[in-house]
Design a protein that fits this description.
about 375 residues; alpha/beta; eight-stranded mixed β-sheet; two-stranded antiparallel ribbon
Length: about 375
């Protein structure tokens, strides 16, 4: 019996080595949306400081044959067999996957409030300034299913108490339900936030009736991107059914252009060219302009600074949005009301440098952030 086990293990090891040797080296994990470790160079110094061993171990782990299959088996075992409430901090309930987010980091909430206050004082002290909070999916799922989550009421109370009185809160929580979010991803659906966009516009300027898209407008074109496997698919390693991304456009949105500081390019609002359809993520592939995340169809994904210009608007109005990735899909729904919308992501640029790149003159300012970012505000520079 011992010989059978030993020979079986030896055969398995040899088979895996052969498969490892003949399979093409991949540079990207599509399921995990990250770059895979590269094979380290064998040098004397790398051996001495043990970095070669550490990096080679990461390389082997990342490129192990059938790695995704083994991750899936582990996830099924953890989630379905031994009844863990989550796998890799991802849980699934009512058909929606979500990531555990707890406890409330009070210091982070206070730092977020201080960041808003300091930015206003530094760059737009005499402007109309607003803030709004995007609830994560746990707000709708966690409590009723017994999963731990942050104290949203306390978080909002802390923000209200510590953010300056002349920075006005726009409460978008009542406009959202769990159905307005993708089942496999952290983000909200564009078709679920028409009311949210209308409420934001009303809060920014309650003196007029705003032109806002609705999915029933006869002049609005609905487009669909099938087989969207959100970020929780790869993180959980669970077998989840894909979502569909719907994005909406009309003549105004189609004519608008987006300038991105990172690339210097001026492109359309919806970046179909960023999708990775048919791309082989093997060594040597040209992945420069390809995104692993189909949500990046909205504005091309997160970027340091982006400027949306509306050539047909006569409002003369400007809006600056400090945002995370949720801002990418709602910004197109605000285009009708502004000649210019500037999106700023201070996860990627120091606040001290904003004056060199952003003109704040005669602009309204909106801070639009999701609760996970507020609860981890150290990422804001």
């Amino acid at each position: 019996m011992k010989r059978i086990v030993a020979y079986s293990f030896l055969a398995y090891t040899i088979t895996m080595l052969v498969v490892f040797a003949i399979l093409p080296t991949r540079v990207i994990s599509e399921s995990e949306r990250r770059k895979l470790a590269k094979k380290p160079k064998l040098t004397f110094s790398a051996v001495v400081d043990k970095s070669y061993t550490d990096n080679f171990e990461k390389y082997i782990t990342d490129h192990f044959p059938f790695r995704d299959t083994f991750r899936r088996i582990k996830a099924i075992w953890s989630y379905n067999i031994i009844n863990q409430i989550e796998n890799n901090n991802i849980y699934v309930t009512d058909g929606y996957a979500s990531k555990l987010e707890y406890p409330l980091n009070e210091n982070s909430v206070l730092k977020f409030a201080d960041k808003i206050n300091s930015l206003k004082e530094e760059y737009f002290d005499d402007h109309n300034v607003y803030y709004s909070v995007v609830p994560d999916k746990n707000y709708f799922l966690a409590y009723k299913r017994g999963y731990p989550s942050i104290d949203y009421e306390k978080m909002l109370k802390m923000l209200n108490e510590h953010i300056a009185d002349d920075i006005y809160y726009i409460d978008i929580f009542p406009t959202l339900t769990i159905e307005d979010y993708y089942r496999t991803d952290t983000h909200w659906k564009q078709e679920g936030i028409f009311d949210t966009a209308a409420l934001l516009l009303d809060g920014l300027d309650s003196s007029k009736v705003h032109k806002i898209l609705t999915d029933s407008d006869h002049n609005v074109e609905k487009n669909a991107i099938e087989d969207f496997f959100g970020v929780y698919c790869g993180q959980s390693a669970l077998s989840l059914k894909p979502d569909v991304i719907n994005y909406y456009t009309d003549s105004v949105i189609a004519s608008a252009q987006v300038w991105t500081l990172d690339t210097g390019e001026k492109r359309e609002i919806y970046r179909i060219d960023k999708l990775d359809e048919g791309v082989e993520f093997s060594e040597g592939a040209d992945l420069k302009n390809i995104s692993l995340d189909k949500y990046d169809v909205f504005l091309g994904g997160s970027a340091t600074i982006q400027k949306i210009t509306n050539p047909v608007s006569d409002t003369g109005k400007r809006l600056i949005i400090f945002r995370d990735s949720f801002g990418s899909s709602i910004a197109p729904l605000l285009v009708h009301e502004y000649n210019e919308i500037i999106l700023v992501d201070i996860r990627y640029i120091s606040s001290k440098l904003l004056g060199d790149y952003v003109d704040f003159k005669d602009a309204d300012v909106l801070f639009l952030y999701s609760t996970p970012v507020i609860n981890s505000s150290s990422m804001l520079k």
